[in-house]
Amino acid sequence: MPDQGFASVTRAWTVPPGQDGIRLDDFVRRCLPHLSLRETRRAIEAGAFRVDQRLGKKGDRLCGGCVLTLRGFPDLLAESPVPTRDLKVSILYEDDCLLALDKPAGVATHGFSGRETRALANYLAAIRPALVGVGGNRWEAGFVHRLDRDTSGIVLAAKDQEAFDHLRSQFRRGRVRKKYWALVWGKAGSGGVIDDPLIHDPQDRRKMKLSGREGGRKRAAKRWKARTRFQTVAYSRGFSLLRVEMETGVTHQIRVHLAALGHPLVGDPLYARERPLPPALGRQFLHAFSLEFRHPRTGQQLILESPLAAELREVLRGLRLPCP
Predict the structure, then answer these.
(1) Where are the chain's structural domains?
(2) What angle (nearest 5°) sits at the alpha carbon of residue 303, between those of residues 297 and 309?
(3) Measured between alpha carbons, how far is 268 from 273 in angstroms, rounded to an integer?
(4) How far does the chain reach from its first CA to its final CA, in angstroms?
(5) Could you give the C-alpha distances from 98 to 136, 297, 299, in angstroms and in order?
(6) Which residues 6+ apart lie within 8 Å of 221 measured at CB?
(7) 177-318 domain in CATH 3.30.2350.10?
(8) Buried/exposed 210-248: b ≥16 CB within 10 Å, e otherwise
(9) 10-43 burial, b if ≥16 CB within 10 A, otherwise e?
(10) Which among 219, 89, 71 has a CA at the least distance from the CA of 147?
(11) CATH class of domain segment(s) 4-77
């Protein structure tokens, strides 16, 4: 439901002559080109748009002269992240062309529309407004990679497009070393390498899965190469603390690989939902503690580090595992 305090916010557009038969979702994207097709359709389904005072549906065909109106839903008019200062976020490193933040759990890196107001991108829009517009899309605010909402740790942003392109290229070519602390169920052995491609789970689009064999399907699913290296640091009371390195960067990569190994991430709401949480843990136990890359200006090798989040240290103490 839209905030009723914004009920007076209204925009109206008229379908030009000669555009008879245009779909409602296509016309909305012409009027609000900063919205993705997914966001457009979600907004239509939420009742954001009316056609000649009739509630619109995404497949509606419009006629020249029809009037499209938007009342409420002010987030749909935002073309960049809405500035938000009241987030508790630490700056780990900053110079004239890049910035690294220590992301807390429960905060997204960035959203994909004005509907997200409490992501790191919103915070950067408030404290470093010059970063708005840097990146591959208007919502990134310079971030060259992302962490899952419930993963804590280092997130890197570029301050200009040249630095962004250079850093993104390093990520794409596997030149960035990304290390994590992960707590998993069971005794994971001494360590190993998981080298299995991932695809979207056709049964649940929120999830990824090992590609396996998709024979018999009319259209092969898109596969992403994924390689994860891990080392067991300690084991206690049915839990293993792992040092994990991602050699690629696929959505949910660590979570899916460890779950497929039979040692799902403790607290993971998607891949270990049937497992109980240990005391003091209200999130998944995954922390990005180290990022190593070349500075986009000087070429110097930089290693940034983030201390383990306090709530995760408390969990380790309770399990009598060493705190790194």
Answers:
(1) 4-77, 90-172, 177-318
(2) 130
(3) 6
(4) 45
(5) 16, 10, 13
(6) 199, 200, 202, 211, 214
(7) yes
(8) bbeeeeeeeeeeebeebbbbbebbebeeebbbbbbbbbb
(9) eeebebeeeeeebebbebbbeebebbeeebbbbb
(10) 89
(11) alpha beta
**Which numeric CATH code is attached to 90-172?**
3.30.2350.10
Residue pLDDT, tens place only, 146-181: 999 999 999 999 999 999 999 999 999 999 999 999
- Catalytic: 148? yes
β-sheet bridge partners, residue 10: 71
Q: What is the mean pLDDT of residues 304-315?
A: 95
Residue 143 per-residue DSSP state: B
Domains 4-77 and 177-318 fall in the same CATH topology: no
Measured at the alpha carbon of residue 119, what is the angle toward residues 114 and 122, in degrees to the nearest 5? 65
Residue where the block lists tokens 């005391």? 279
**Which residues are paired to 184 by β-bridges?**
240, 265
CA dihedral 194, 195, 200, 205 (to 10 degrees): 10
DSSP characters for 33-80? Answer: TTS-HHHHHHHHHTT-EEETTEEP-TTPEE-TT-EEEEES-GGGG-SS
Q: Output the six-digit token pair for 143.
A: 């971030």
Q: Which of 148, 150, 196, 268 is catalytic?
A: 148
- What tokens appear for 179 in the block? 């290390």
* pLDDT, averaged across the chain: 91
* Distance, CA of 250 to chain centre: 11
Place 75 in a pLDDT band, splitting at 50, 70 and 90.
confident
